[in-house]
Amino acid sequence: MVPLTRVAVITGANKGIGYFIALQLAVSGLFTDVIIGCRDSSRGAIASEEIQQKISIGSSSSTKMHSLPLIIGNVQSHTDFCERLEQEFGSASVLVNNAGFAYKGSDPTPFNEQTKKTFETNYYGLVDFTEKMIPLLKKGKDPRIVNVASMAGKLKQLSSELQTKYTDEQLTIEQLNSLMKSFEKDVHDGVHRQNGWSSSNYGMSKLGVIAATKVFAREEPSISVNSCCPGYCDTDMTSNMGRRSPDDGAKNAVIPATMKNPPTGEHFADFDVSTW
Ligand SMILES: NC(=O)c1ccc[n+]([C@@H]2O[C@H](COP(=O)([O-])OP(=O)(O)OC[C@H]3O[C@@H](n4cnc5c(N)ncnc54)[C@H](OP(=O)(O)O)[C@@H]3O)[C@@H](O)[C@H]2O)c1
Protein backbone atom coordinates (compact mmCIF):
# COMPACT_ATOMS: atom_id res chain seq x y z
CA MET A 1 0.00 0.00 0.00
CA VAL A 2 1.41 3.45 -0.90
CA PRO A 3 1.56 5.63 2.23
CA LEU A 4 -0.50 8.84 2.25
CA THR A 5 2.16 10.66 4.23
CA ARG A 6 5.58 11.72 3.05
CA VAL A 7 7.76 12.30 6.08
CA ALA A 8 11.23 13.89 6.28
CA VAL A 9 13.45 13.42 9.34
CA ILE A 10 16.42 15.69 10.06
CA THR A 11 18.75 15.04 12.99
CA GLY A 12 20.25 17.88 15.05
CA ALA A 13 18.07 20.56 13.48
CA ASN A 14 17.42 22.96 16.35
CA LYS A 15 20.14 25.28 15.00
CA GLY A 16 22.84 25.70 12.37
CA ILE A 17 22.72 23.96 9.00
CA GLY A 18 20.15 21.36 10.16
CA TYR A 19 17.63 24.11 10.97
CA PHE A 20 17.84 25.39 7.39
CA ILE A 21 17.66 21.88 5.92
CA ALA A 22 14.40 21.39 7.87
CA LEU A 23 13.08 24.81 6.78
CA GLN A 24 13.91 24.21 3.09
CA LEU A 25 12.38 20.71 3.09
CA ALA A 26 9.24 22.10 4.77
CA VAL A 27 8.94 24.97 2.28
CA SER A 28 9.42 22.58 -0.68
CA GLY A 29 5.87 21.32 -0.23
CA LEU A 30 7.09 17.79 -0.99
CA PHE A 31 6.41 16.49 2.54
CA THR A 32 3.27 16.16 4.63
CA ASP A 33 5.39 16.19 7.79
CA VAL A 34 8.90 17.30 8.70
CA ILE A 35 10.32 15.96 11.96
CA ILE A 36 13.37 17.40 13.64
CA GLY A 37 15.16 15.03 16.01
CA CYS A 38 16.77 17.10 18.78
CA ARG A 39 18.51 16.19 22.03
CA ASP A 40 17.13 19.24 23.86
CA SER A 41 13.34 18.95 23.69
CA SER A 42 12.60 22.57 24.55
CA ARG A 43 15.02 23.96 21.95
CA GLY A 44 13.63 21.43 19.46
CA ALA A 45 10.08 22.63 20.13
CA ILE A 46 11.07 26.28 19.73
CA ALA A 47 12.82 25.59 16.39
CA SER A 48 9.88 23.52 15.14
CA GLU A 49 7.35 26.26 16.01
CA GLU A 50 9.56 28.92 14.45
CA ILE A 51 9.87 26.95 11.18
CA GLN A 52 6.09 26.33 11.19
CA GLN A 53 5.51 30.09 11.43
CA LYS A 54 8.00 30.81 8.63
CA ILE A 55 6.34 28.36 6.23
CA SER A 56 2.87 29.69 7.01
CA ILE A 57 3.98 33.26 6.23
CA GLY A 58 6.39 32.70 3.35
CA SER A 59 5.02 29.75 1.34
CA SER A 60 1.93 27.85 0.25
CA SER A 61 3.25 24.63 1.81
CA SER A 62 0.87 22.77 4.15
CA THR A 63 3.70 20.76 5.78
CA LYS A 64 3.32 20.12 9.51
CA MET A 65 6.42 20.50 11.67
CA HIS A 66 7.19 18.22 14.62
CA SER A 67 10.03 17.83 17.09
CA LEU A 68 10.93 14.49 18.70
CA PRO A 69 13.67 13.74 21.24
CA LEU A 70 16.77 12.14 19.71
CA ILE A 71 20.30 11.75 21.02
CA ILE A 72 22.59 10.51 18.27
CA GLY A 73 25.03 7.99 19.74
CA ASN A 74 22.53 6.73 22.32
CA VAL A 75 21.14 3.47 20.87
CA GLN A 76 18.11 3.44 23.22
CA SER A 77 17.20 6.94 22.03
CA HIS A 78 17.51 5.74 18.39
CA THR A 79 15.12 2.85 19.15
CA ASP A 80 12.65 5.08 21.01
CA PHE A 81 12.64 7.62 18.15
CA CYS A 82 12.03 4.95 15.49
CA GLU A 83 9.26 3.28 17.51
CA ARG A 84 7.48 6.61 17.96
CA LEU A 85 7.95 7.46 14.29
CA GLU A 86 6.45 4.12 13.27
CA GLN A 87 3.48 4.50 15.66
CA GLU A 88 2.67 8.09 14.70
CA PHE A 89 3.61 8.22 11.00
CA GLY A 90 4.11 4.62 9.81
CA SER A 91 7.04 5.38 7.48
CA ALA A 92 9.65 7.94 6.46
CA SER A 93 10.68 9.08 2.98
CA VAL A 94 13.76 11.17 3.73
CA LEU A 95 16.40 10.93 6.44
CA VAL A 96 19.01 13.68 6.66
CA ASN A 97 21.74 12.70 9.11
CA ASN A 98 22.92 16.19 9.99
CA ALA A 99 23.73 16.04 13.74
CA GLY A 100 27.47 16.35 14.17
CA PHE A 101 30.11 17.36 16.63
CA ALA A 102 33.61 18.83 16.47
CA TYR A 103 36.00 19.80 19.24
CA LYS A 104 37.34 23.34 19.11
CA GLY A 105 41.06 23.53 18.29
CA SER A 106 41.77 24.97 21.76
CA ASP A 107 40.02 22.13 23.66
CA PRO A 108 42.46 20.48 26.12
CA THR A 109 40.72 17.02 26.05
CA PRO A 110 43.32 14.33 25.13
CA PHE A 111 43.25 13.26 21.46
CA ASN A 112 42.11 9.66 22.15
CA GLU A 113 39.17 10.86 24.30
CA GLN A 114 38.25 13.38 21.58
CA THR A 115 38.35 10.58 19.02
CA LYS A 116 35.96 8.41 21.07
CA LYS A 117 33.36 11.16 21.54
CA THR A 118 33.62 12.42 17.96
CA PHE A 119 33.20 8.90 16.54
CA GLU A 120 30.29 8.13 18.91
CA THR A 121 28.16 10.89 17.40
CA ASN A 122 29.50 11.44 13.89
CA TYR A 123 30.16 7.85 12.84
CA TYR A 124 28.83 5.01 15.08
CA GLY A 125 25.73 7.00 16.09
CA LEU A 126 24.92 7.88 12.49
CA VAL A 127 25.40 4.28 11.33
CA ASP A 128 23.25 2.75 14.10
CA PHE A 129 20.46 5.32 13.65
CA THR A 130 20.50 4.78 9.87
CA GLU A 131 20.28 1.00 10.29
CA LYS A 132 17.23 1.46 12.55
CA MET A 133 15.60 3.91 10.12
CA ILE A 134 16.05 1.76 6.99
CA PRO A 135 12.95 -0.45 7.59
CA LEU A 136 10.82 2.72 7.96
CA LEU A 137 12.39 4.25 4.84
CA LYS A 138 11.67 1.08 2.85
CA LYS A 139 7.98 1.63 3.66
CA GLY A 140 8.17 5.27 2.49
CA LYS A 141 7.57 6.78 -0.92
CA ASP A 142 10.70 7.61 -3.00
CA PRO A 143 13.03 6.98 -0.02
CA ARG A 144 16.31 8.84 0.39
CA ILE A 145 19.11 9.22 2.90
CA VAL A 146 21.47 12.19 2.91
CA ASN A 147 24.47 12.07 5.22
CA VAL A 148 26.03 15.41 6.08
CA ALA A 149 29.77 14.73 5.88
CA SER A 150 32.46 17.35 5.24
CA MET A 151 35.35 18.37 3.03
CA ALA A 152 37.37 17.17 6.06
CA GLY A 153 36.37 13.60 5.10
CA LYS A 154 38.55 13.55 1.96
CA LEU A 155 40.01 10.16 1.03
CA LYS A 156 43.48 11.59 0.35
CA GLN A 157 44.15 12.04 4.09
CA LEU A 158 44.83 8.25 4.21
CA SER A 159 47.81 6.25 2.95
CA SER A 160 47.19 4.60 -0.43
CA GLU A 161 46.95 1.19 1.29
CA LEU A 162 44.15 2.42 3.58
CA GLN A 163 42.45 4.21 0.67
CA THR A 164 42.19 0.84 -1.08
CA LYS A 165 40.50 -0.68 1.99
CA TYR A 166 37.98 2.18 2.36
CA THR A 167 37.04 2.10 -1.33
CA ASP A 168 36.73 -1.70 -1.62
CA GLU A 169 33.58 -2.40 -3.70
CA GLN A 170 32.77 -5.35 -1.40
CA LEU A 171 33.17 -3.41 1.88
CA THR A 172 30.45 -4.10 4.48
CA ILE A 173 29.39 -1.95 7.43
CA GLU A 174 30.90 -4.55 9.77
CA GLN A 175 34.27 -4.31 7.99
CA LEU A 176 34.04 -0.52 7.94
CA ASN A 177 33.36 -0.50 11.70
CA SER A 178 36.50 -2.64 12.16
CA LEU A 179 38.55 -0.17 10.11
CA MET A 180 37.26 2.70 12.28
CA LYS A 181 38.13 0.66 15.42
CA SER A 182 41.67 0.09 14.04
CA PHE A 183 42.11 3.86 13.77
CA GLU A 184 40.90 4.28 17.38
CA LYS A 185 43.29 1.58 18.58
CA ASP A 186 46.24 3.16 16.73
CA VAL A 187 45.30 6.53 18.23
CA HIS A 188 45.24 4.92 21.68
CA ASP A 189 48.70 3.38 21.02
CA GLY A 190 50.02 6.64 19.59
CA VAL A 191 50.90 5.07 16.20
CA HIS A 192 48.10 6.33 13.94
CA ARG A 193 50.29 8.69 11.89
CA GLN A 194 53.01 6.10 11.25
CA ASN A 195 50.32 3.56 10.24
CA GLY A 196 49.00 5.80 7.47
CA TRP A 197 45.95 7.31 9.18
CA SER A 198 44.88 10.93 9.25
CA SER A 199 45.87 13.33 12.01
CA SER A 200 42.24 14.53 12.28
CA ASN A 201 39.67 12.49 14.21
CA TYR A 202 36.86 14.74 12.93
CA GLY A 203 38.16 14.17 9.37
CA MET A 204 38.28 10.41 9.98
CA SER A 205 34.70 10.41 11.34
CA LYS A 206 33.46 12.17 8.19
CA LEU A 207 35.56 9.92 5.94
CA GLY A 208 33.77 7.02 7.65
CA VAL A 209 30.41 8.69 6.91
CA ILE A 210 31.23 8.95 3.19
CA ALA A 211 32.41 5.31 3.10
CA ALA A 212 29.23 4.19 4.96
CA THR A 213 27.12 6.15 2.46
CA LYS A 214 28.58 4.09 -0.39
CA VAL A 215 28.05 0.80 1.49
CA PHE A 216 24.41 1.64 2.33
CA ALA A 217 23.83 2.73 -1.29
CA ARG A 218 25.08 -0.63 -2.55
CA GLU A 219 23.25 -2.70 0.07
CA GLU A 220 19.91 -0.83 -0.19
CA PRO A 221 19.22 -0.37 -3.90
CA SER A 222 15.63 0.77 -3.26
CA ILE A 223 16.90 3.84 -1.34
CA SER A 224 18.87 6.74 -2.81
CA VAL A 225 21.78 7.23 -0.38
CA ASN A 226 24.16 10.17 -0.83
CA SER A 227 26.52 12.26 1.29
CA CYS A 228 27.28 15.96 1.12
CA CYS A 229 29.61 18.66 2.31
CA PRO A 230 27.72 21.84 3.23
CA GLY A 231 30.84 24.00 2.76
CA TYR A 232 32.54 26.11 5.44
CA CYS A 233 29.51 27.71 7.10
CA ASP A 234 28.81 30.45 9.60
CA THR A 235 27.55 28.34 12.56
CA ASP A 236 28.41 27.63 16.19
CA MET A 237 30.56 24.69 15.06
CA THR A 238 32.97 27.00 13.23
CA SER A 239 32.69 29.75 15.90
CA ASN A 240 30.96 31.70 13.11
CA MET A 241 34.15 31.80 11.02
CA GLY A 242 32.59 30.10 7.96
CA ARG A 243 32.16 32.19 4.82
CA ARG A 244 28.99 30.43 3.61
CA SER A 245 25.61 31.05 5.26
CA PRO A 246 24.03 27.95 6.87
CA ASP A 247 21.04 28.63 4.62
CA ASP A 248 23.24 28.15 1.52
CA GLY A 249 25.17 25.25 3.07
CA ALA A 250 21.87 23.44 3.70
CA LYS A 251 21.18 23.34 -0.06
CA ASN A 252 23.89 20.70 -0.48
CA ALA A 253 21.73 18.28 1.54
CA VAL A 254 18.38 19.52 0.22
CA ILE A 255 19.37 18.97 -3.44
CA PRO A 256 19.87 15.16 -3.17
CA ALA A 257 16.86 14.97 -0.79
CA THR A 258 14.48 16.60 -3.27
CA MET A 259 15.85 16.37 -6.86
CA LYS A 260 14.07 14.26 -9.46
CA ASN A 261 15.82 10.97 -10.32
CA PRO A 262 18.51 11.25 -7.63
CA PRO A 263 21.76 9.30 -8.01
CA THR A 264 22.89 6.93 -5.27
CA GLY A 265 26.27 6.49 -3.60
CA GLU A 266 27.43 9.97 -4.66
CA HIS A 267 28.96 12.84 -2.71
CA PHE A 268 27.59 16.37 -3.20
CA ALA A 269 29.54 19.60 -2.65
CA ASP A 270 29.11 23.14 -3.96
CA PHE A 271 25.56 22.24 -5.08
CA ASP A 272 26.55 19.40 -7.43
CA VAL A 273 27.93 15.85 -7.54
CA SER A 274 31.56 15.98 -6.47
CA THR A 275 34.52 13.68 -5.89
CA TRP A 276 35.56 12.04 -2.61
N1 LIG B 1 29.64 24.44 9.78
C1 LIG B 1 30.49 23.97 8.85
O1 LIG B 1 31.29 24.72 8.28
C2 LIG B 1 30.45 22.52 8.48
C3 LIG B 1 31.31 22.08 7.46
C4 LIG B 1 31.28 20.75 7.08
C5 LIG B 1 30.39 19.88 7.69
N2 LIG B 1 29.59 20.32 8.69
C6 LIG B 1 28.65 19.36 9.29
O2 LIG B 1 27.35 19.89 9.19
C7 LIG B 1 26.53 19.40 10.26
C8 LIG B 1 25.87 20.56 10.96
O3 LIG B 1 26.89 21.41 11.48
P1 LIG B 1 26.61 22.88 12.03
O4 LIG B 1 27.74 23.71 11.56
O5 LIG B 1 25.23 23.27 11.77
O6 LIG B 1 26.86 22.60 13.60
P2 LIG B 1 26.17 23.21 14.88
O7 LIG B 1 25.73 24.60 14.65
O8 LIG B 1 27.11 22.92 15.99
O9 LIG B 1 24.85 22.30 15.05
C9 LIG B 1 24.98 20.94 15.27
C10 LIG B 1 23.61 20.37 15.53
O10 LIG B 1 23.77 18.97 15.80
C11 LIG B 1 23.20 18.69 17.08
N3 LIG B 1 23.89 17.59 17.72
C12 LIG B 1 25.21 17.47 17.98
N4 LIG B 1 25.46 16.31 18.59
C13 LIG B 1 24.27 15.67 18.72
C14 LIG B 1 23.85 14.44 19.27
N5 LIG B 1 24.73 13.60 19.83
N6 LIG B 1 22.54 14.12 19.22
C15 LIG B 1 21.64 14.94 18.66
N7 LIG B 1 21.96 16.13 18.14
C16 LIG B 1 23.26 16.49 18.17
C17 LIG B 1 23.32 19.98 17.86
O11 LIG B 1 22.44 19.96 18.96
P3 LIG B 1 22.69 20.93 20.25
O12 LIG B 1 22.16 22.28 19.86
O13 LIG B 1 21.87 20.26 21.31
O14 LIG B 1 24.15 20.94 20.51
C18 LIG B 1 22.94 20.97 16.77
O15 LIG B 1 21.55 21.00 16.59
C19 LIG B 1 27.47 18.59 11.15
O16 LIG B 1 27.37 17.22 10.84
C20 LIG B 1 28.85 19.11 10.77
O17 LIG B 1 29.86 18.18 11.04
C21 LIG B 1 29.58 21.62 9.10
TrEMBL record:
InterPro entries: NAD(P)-bd_dom_sf (IPR036291), SDR_fam (IPR002347). The keyword NADP applies. GO terms for molecular function: oxidoreductase activity. Keywords: NADP, Oxidoreductase. It comes from the Eukaryota. Pfam families: adh_short. Belongs to the short-chain dehydrogenases/reductases (SDR) family. This is Carbonyl reductase 3. It comes from Fragilariopsis cylindrus CCMP1102.
